[in-house]
Write a structure and sequence with these properties.
By secondary structure, the protein is an alpha/beta fold. The chain contains five helices and nine strands, in the order ββααβαββββαβαβ. The strands form two sheets. Strands 5-6-4-3-7-8-9 form a seven-stranded mixed beta sheet, with helices on both faces. It has a two-stranded antiparallel ribbon with strand order 1-2.
Length: 176
């Protein structure tokens, strides 16, 4: 029986030499694999009240849209700076190789709404950490965070746990 991990291919030296890129597009392209991933991303939150699904740019949009549809809930994108057309709030965060800024519409989440964050990959936790700050600034209550892949050596799960987050990952890969 195949697992989610079996559907993910690894591409060596992308986008830079020495990086082992975990490509989830092969998972998304397979209907059984994609369905399995969506079901498993949702499973730990069964019975939880959830009002909105937040997807992190860009593959989190694919997952978040599918999960929002499955739950009949709203979907909210968190995007890179300058990509959202309405009034936004911003949060800077550190990457392995520099800094970036994420944004959310300032009316996307109402105070007290229960939010599930989804993305494909958990590495250092910087992107998700910024998303958590944005959601909390809007008054959202984060139920948890779900990812397909965790790269445990990069420490993202520990960072999110230290922020008080419940974290669900479907599989792990060693190395960066």
């Amino acid at each position: 029986m195949k697992t989610v991990k079996d559907y993910i291919r690894t591409i060596a030296d992308f986008p830079h030499e020495g990086i082992m890129f975990r490509d989830v597009t092969t998972l998304f392209a397979d209907p059984r694999g994609f369905r399995m991933a969506i079901d498993q991303l949702l499973h730990p939150w069964a019975g939880e009240k959830i009002d909105k699904i937040v997807g992190l740019e860009a593959r989190g949009f694919i997952l978040g849209g599918a999960i929002a549809h499955q739950l009949s809930k709203g979907f909210v994108p968190i995007r890179k700076k300058g990509k959202l057309p309405g009034q936004t709030i911003s949060q800077a965060y550190k990457l392995e190789y520099g800094e970036a800024i994420m944004e959310i519409h300032d009316d996307a989440i109402q105070a007290g709404e229960k939010v599930l964050i989804v993305d494909d990959l958990l590495a250092t936790g910087g992107t998700c950490g910024a998303a958590i700050q944005l959601i909390e600034r809007l008054g959202g209550d984060i139920v948890g965070c779900s990812f397909i892949v965790d790269l445990p050596e990069l420490g993202g799960r520990k960072l999110l746990n230290d922020l008080g987050m419940d974290v669900n990952v479907l599989c792990e890969f060693e190395g960066a």
